[in-house]
Here is the input.
Amino acid sequence: MPMVFLFLKLGGTIKSCIYIVNPSLLHCGTPEADGTAWLTFWQAIGDTLQGFTDSIIYFVFSSDLRNKMWLGLKRCCKIQKKQTALQSETRMVRFKNNKSTSS
Here is the structure.
């Protein structure tokens, strides 16, 4: 798992090393900087994905959190099923009432 974090952080690390060796390579608008622009995107995406990846890994490996999420999801689905059943029942009553008044 740490390899994922190292890969995500690698763009920023390479960019920092290039800046230490030759700062002119990273200045915008210079022909030399055109070849390193992708590092900026890699750093921007990689740094933000570290938190997302951390939360996914925590969710996958934490059984307590996973159980709480599934219980909440089941509870939510039960409430939804009850509401759907209630709506269906109400429709049936209305249909029967309409049918008996039109006869």
